[in-house]
Amino acid sequence: MMYYRPAKAYINLPALKSNLQYAQKLAPNSKVLAVIKANGYGHGIERVANQLSGADAFGVASIDEAMLLRQKGFLHRILLLEGLFSAAEIPVIIQNRLDIVVHSEYQLDWLLNNAIPMQTNVWIKIDTGMHRLGFDVQQLASVIAKLERSDNEFSIHVMSHFASADEESTQGQKFTQAQMEKFHSATQTYQYPKSLANSAGLVLYPDSHYEWVRPGICLYGAGGLTKPNYREESLKAVMQLESEIIAIKTIQVGESVGYGNTWTATRKSLIGVIAIGYGDGYPRHAKTGTPVLINGQKLPLVGRVSMDMITVDLTDIESPASIGDKAILWGDSLPVDEVAEFSGTIGYELLCGVTKRVPMIEIQ
Ligand SMILES: Cc1ncc(COP(=O)(O)O)c(C=O)c1O
Predict the structure, then answer these.
(1) Percentage of residues of the chain with pLDDT beyond 90
(2) What is the pLDDT of residue 232?
(3) Is 208 in the pocket of ligand 1 (CB under 6 A)?
(4) Domain count of the chain?
(5) Which residue from 22, 35, 48 has its CB within 8 A of the most atoms of ligand 1, so it is best to mutate?
(6) Is 216 in the pocket of ligand 1 (CB under 6 A)?
């Protein structure tokens, strides 16, 4: 297939596999539920599932995502992380043998008030501090009792979700410890399989591993976790977003660049124009100074991001750039999380946001 525009996202398939192996190594006594919702965090759900087929289960956000996997022939356990949005989903869940989260009373009622003619894996979600989804810990006993007493046959699991396990601050760490303690004390009397750890829990908090870990972002080689050697040696960025220089321009002191004239040269400057923009998912809010990798050097974005182009200050480049030279927007040598920080967001959003017009090219 010929792609004429140079903006492309390369997907490093072996990196997905080795990131999974690393996750398995970190939690050798746990099963791994690989979170591949939102089109595999923007990498393409089918290709991601193929590479992560060694996982024990997949986590998705909806039946639509789960069905996509079933239609492609994946027989893994698939957990609907937000459970059911309506009771009408029950027959589909039965037919496709899906695992479901139950986080609220209304979902529990659907499970108890509908005949389910097969054993179903139910993951009771409790709220240990995130205050988004989940039963209060005090409700756990009664939820379990209701499921146990039901004529339907439920295989019970208990889970919760971290709010700030990836925050390195003392406050973030304290909060995470408190969530772990709350989870432990709420669940310790039950022998059911338990799950608490997301990527940050998996990497930074071994006591949170329990029977199932649920990594997402670390499988894609992102997440900004900075435990020594964590990223550099063990996890590889899966996506590399690239484009090329399509124009080089010299501008004089006092001249400005791009929409809104937001950046003005204070010295005679060499500006490179790269064929990538917010129409491709490069963040429009990326500030002047956002790093772009050209000829192995991080150079600053200047001026506003346009729909199809960005402008980069090449004045200090050590090995001179030419038209057609590659520009890396993020990838293994330029973490997506670093780029995200310059636009007030997180790597997750950038990875999920690469638009359809950017061809994804698999590296085998
Ligand atoms: C319930 C649940 N578990 C696990 C994950 C994976 O989180 P992460 O990508 O931070 O590893 C998510 C992602 O949002 C989630 O919602």
Answers:
(1) 95
(2) 45
(3) no
(4) 2
(5) 35
(6) yes
Among the atoms of ligand 1, which is closest to the Cα of residue 218? 11
* Distance (Å) of CA 93 to CA 81, 119, 155, 316: 13, 11, 14, 58
pLDDT at residue 134 tops 60? yes
Answer yes or no: is pLDDT of 9 > 60. Answer: yes
Over the stretch 138-153, which tens digit does the pLDDT of each residue have? 999 999 999 999 999 9
Active site residue 37: yes
Task: Please calculate the CA angle 153-157-161 and round it to the nearest 5 degrees.
Answer: 145
Choose one of 190, 224, 258: the last residue of a domain.
Answer: 224
Residue 215 Cβ < 6 Å to ligand 1: yes
Please check the confidence at residue 234 and state whether its pLDDT lies above 90.
Answer: no
Closest CA to 210 of 13, 15, 33: 33
Please report the DSSP string for 308-323 in residue order. Answer: S-EEEE-TT-SS---T
Query: In this structure, what token pair is assigned to residue 11?
Result: 């997907």
CATH code (residue 287): 2.40.37.10
Are 180 and 70 part of one and the same domain?
A: yes
Tell me, yes or no, if the pTM score tops 0.85.
yes
* Angle, vertex CA 86, rays to CA 67 and CA 150, nearest 5: 100
Tell me, using a 6 A CB cutoff, whether residue 214 lines ligand 1.
yes
- Greatest alpha-carbon span in the chain: 78
